[in-house]
Amino acid sequence: MSQQRHGSTPGEAGGVPAFPDLPEATIARLPEYLRALHHLAETGAETVSSEGLAAAAGVNSAKLRKDLSHLGSYGTRGVGYDVSLLVAQIEYILGLDENRAVCLVGVGNLGHALAGYAGFASRGFRVVALFDTDPRKVGEQINGLTVRHIDDLERIAAEESIAIGVIATPPGTAQTVADALVAAGVTSILNFAPGVLSVPSNVDVRKVDLAIELQILSFHEHRKASLTALPGGRSAAASPDKLPDNQKAVGS
Amino acid sequence: MSQQRHGSTPGEAGGVPAFPDLPEATIARLPEYLRALHHLAETGAETVSSEGLAAAAGVNSAKLRKDLSHLGSYGTRGVGYDVSLLVAQIEYILGLDENRAVCLVGVGNLGHALAGYAGFASRGFRVVALFDTDPRKVGEQINGLTVRHIDDLERIAAEESIAIGVIATPPGTAQTVADALVAAGVTSILNFAPGVLSVPSNVDVRKVDLAIELQILSFHEHRKASLTALPGGRSAAASPDKLPDNQKAVGS
DNA sequence: GTATGTGAAAAGCTTCACAGCG
DNA sequence: CGCTGTGAAGCTTTTCACATAC
């Protein structure tokens, strides 16, 4: 890739999109860059340097530049990146200009909260349907949507062209729900239920397990404790201080 | 490591714990192994092969064996791993035998759900305090806990030895809350608010951004769509089928 | 015979450091 | 002269394949 590639821009449906095959690690960071860029745009910035954007996104600038270079995106040497152009590029790559329809299965404790989560609507998604198996929940109104019985999933998924499903059921029902989603034509699943889902290979699954996050933190607590207890152990609150650096985020 | 290392076992506080320094990628998978092991234990299994446990955890067996080898843990060649022994080992490494106290800040939509999330209690954590700034929420009872004003954080954190804090506030207040948590002696933070937190380097932060998860899935939808539209594009629902394989989970 | 534990190879990702462009 | 874009180096993680132990 020596020549500049002005990678297929948003509006342009001229030829083949020539979809760049980005490293997974890069893909996982693009949404964070996008959030940082939106924030910058609100503050009125028109351009931003790799240094500046990297700081706002919590990564180092070399990584950011390498990531953006994969998009074929262009900054201007000596100047930086055009904020709104980069926003458009990233939104296009992520497919956010399509305002995708999402459904949510399981309207318990967590599902209820997700149904009302404003962050989905504001960042490219429409929650268009809620499902549950519990007849006591079916019919309930949440945030302007009526909870449906899961038997209606196939029909509604077709009507609304739902490609993404969110599972927020107890662990025991998650696989059954996943099978139903797949049967209804859903090809991406975000799973909040602990455990592994088995799906056809054309379906993407991402998992968020809240207890696992805490357990990873617990490991680090345990390690820190065993270090302070031993060698040149720093007694209590003391450290170089306030190095932001990359937040360990949902990845891969 | 040619000789067997029966790595410091749970009960034993004989000498120095000799904390193994595990690869981050391994640490992030241990909780999933633990969950799978608990599940196996419930079904009455006393031992499990690397193949079997790997399948239950959604990884391949080579990776699992390499991961466990870092613990200095021992299976038995020709047999497999002792389930309850491995459970104890992993719980010890993750520091789950300490039943850590956790506090939660921000009792909105999502915070409310997290406060009642049963998975925390059942997997090694006690949610011992809830905080908010909104005076209308302070005093509210959730799941047996009273919501306190955030000004009480420092006192209560000390009383209850809270080392882990969960942030479930709107993005705008997340940094202020993080500063307060750090001041109160919290050294691990799980952040549900979009954006990057800046904290001292002795504090660990993990981030869960629900919209980012959907955006990553959206990218894959976009890519799948652009592939089916083009080369030897498989028309619709068709694929090798049901290869479980690793769920892309919260990582790094 | 069977399944673990592990060196060694391969792949993937991050960081460096600087050429090259504006 | 400043900042991007990128080869090359270094590091981490995954995978392979087999010697080793039960």
From TrEMBL, chains A, B:
<feature type="binding site">
    <location>
        <begin position="106"/>
        <end position="111"/>
    </location>
    <ligand>
        <name>NAD(+)</name>
    </ligand>
</feature>
<keyword id="KW-0804">Transcription</keyword>
<keyword id="KW-0678">Repressor</keyword>
<feature type="DNA-binding region" description="H-T-H motif">
    <location>
        <begin position="32"/>
        <end position="71"/>
    </location>
</feature>
<feature type="region of interest" description="Disordered">
    <location>
        <begin position="230"/>
        <end position="252"/>
    </location>
</feature>
<keyword id="KW-0963">Cytoplasm</keyword>
<keyword id="KW-0238">DNA-binding</keyword>
<dbReference type="GO" id="GO:0003700">
    <property type="term" value="F:DNA-binding transcription factor activity"/>
</dbReference>
<dbReference type="InterPro" id="IPR003781">
    <property type="entry name" value="CoA-bd"/>
</dbReference>
<dbReference type="InterPro" id="IPR009718">
    <property type="entry name" value="Rex_DNA-bd_C_dom"/>
</dbReference>
<protein>
    <recommendedName>
        <fullName>Redox-sensing transcriptional repressor Rex</fullName>
    </recommendedName>
</protein>
<dbReference type="InterPro" id="IPR036291">
    <property type="entry name" value="NAD(P)-bd_dom_sf"/>
</dbReference>
<comment type="function">
    <text>Modulates transcription in response to changes in cellular NADH/NAD(+) redox state.</text>
</comment>
<dbReference type="InterPro" id="IPR022876">
    <property type="entry name" value="Tscrpt_rep_Rex"/>
</dbReference>
<comment type="similarity">
    <text>Belongs to the transcriptional regulatory Rex family.</text>
</comment>
<comment type="subunit">
    <text>Homodimer.</text>
</comment>
<dbReference type="GO" id="GO:0005737">
    <property type="term" value="C:cytoplasm"/>
</dbReference>
<dbReference type="GO" id="GO:0045892">
    <property type="term" value="P:negative regulation of DNA-templated transcription"/>
</dbReference>
<keyword id="KW-0520">NAD</keyword>
<dbReference type="Pfam" id="PF06971">
    <property type="entry name" value="Put_DNA-bind_N"/>
</dbReference>
<dbReference type="InterPro" id="IPR036388">
    <property type="entry name" value="WH-like_DNA-bd_sf"/>
</dbReference>
<dbReference type="Pfam" id="PF02629">
    <property type="entry name" value="CoA_binding"/>
</dbReference>
<keyword id="KW-0805">Transcription regulation</keyword>
<dbReference type="GO" id="GO:0051775">
    <property type="term" value="P:response to redox state"/>
</dbReference>
<feature type="domain" description="CoA-binding">
    <location>
        <begin position="95"/>
        <end position="196"/>
    </location>
</feature>
<dbReference type="InterPro" id="IPR058236">
    <property type="entry name" value="Rex_actinobacterial-type"/>
</dbReference>
<dbReference type="GO" id="GO:0003677">
    <property type="term" value="F:DNA binding"/>
</dbReference>
<dbReference type="InterPro" id="IPR036390">
    <property type="entry name" value="WH_DNA-bd_sf"/>
</dbReference>
